[in-house]
């Protein structure tokens, strides 16, 4: 590595800028599909008494809880899915 010629290196450390993420409004965030699917499976499990749908609803609800981005709005969805 020490025999490598650094004079031909095209990188410019002085021109590097740190990455700054852009702020996204809560209305512009993508839809939480796992929370929506949890509600659908939960309703199907209650209405048709399918145990598999109820278990899938719990799994989707846990996935949605793990991937929460906005605490306030997602917490409402999770509570509705758990009910």
Model description:
This protein is mostly helical and 83 residues long. The protein has a domain at 53-82. Helix content is 53%, strand content 0%. It has 3 helices and no strands. α1 (33-48) packs antiparallel against α2 (51-66) and α2 runs antiparallel to α3. The longest helix is centred in the middle third of the chain and has 16 residues, at 33-48. The mean pLDDT is 77.
Beta-strand content bin: under 5%
What's the rounded overall pLDDT mean? 77
Helix content: 40-55%
The N- and C-terminal alpha carbons lie at a distance of 61 Å
Number of strands: 0
Element pattern in H and E: HHH
Uncertain runs: none
Silhouette: elongated
Helix-strand category: mainly alpha
Radius of gyration: 23 Å
Q: Largest sheet, if any? A: none
Q: How many helical stretches?
A: 3
Descriptive tags:
single chain, 83 residues, mainly alpha, 3 helices, elongated
Task: Furnish the topology, listing elements before pairings.
Blueprint: H1 33-48, H2 51-66, H3 71-82
Helix pairs in contact: 1-2, 1-3, 2-3
Structure summarized in a few sentences:
With 83 residues, the protein is mostly helical.
